Amino acid sequence: MDNWTNAKWCDVANLILGAFLFFSPWILGFDAGPASQNAYVAGLVIAILAVAALAAFAVWEEWLNLIVGLWTLIAPWVLGFQGATTAMTVHVVVGILVAVLAAVEIWMMSQNPPRLTTGR
Predict the structure, then answer these.
(1) What is the pTM of this model?
(2) Would you say the C-alpha torsion 41, 29, 99, 12 has a positive or negative sign?
(3) 44-81 pLDDT, tens per residue?
(4) For residues 69 and 99, is the Cβ–Cβ distance under 8 A?
(5) In 12, 41, 42, 90, which residue has its Cα 20 to 30 A from 81's Cα atom?
(6) How far apart are CA 30 and CA 4, in angstroms?
(7) DSSP string for 77-106
(8) Which of these, 39, 43, 50, lies nearest to 14 by C-alpha position?
(9) Mean of the per-residue pLDDT values for the chain?
């Protein structure tokens, strides 16, 4: 863990965002239903992808995080819980942040791809 790059900090932020989304129905008192179910599933997927990226980076993990972030952003309208103000706000904010962090990591990797060889 000597080499903490900006990409790793983005992954840590995604891990925190995923955990927050997962626990938000309990912390903020969402009603049981689509909002809570989506928060559990999307939060868990975001956190797992962040842990996987911290363990061994692969660009496909960031693409999946981007997709899950965008899903989390649009979920209130697709699943019909846009009237639940707190749940909608949490999903939109977390979705935007996860998608932006994933897009930044993808952009950083395209600008400076990781080296596949060691010792040089």
Answers:
(1) 0.82
(2) negative
(3) 999 999 898 888 767 778 889 999 999 999 999 998 88
(4) yes
(5) 12
(6) 36
(7) HHHT-TT-HHHHHHHHHHHHHHHHHHHHHH
(8) 50
(9) 84
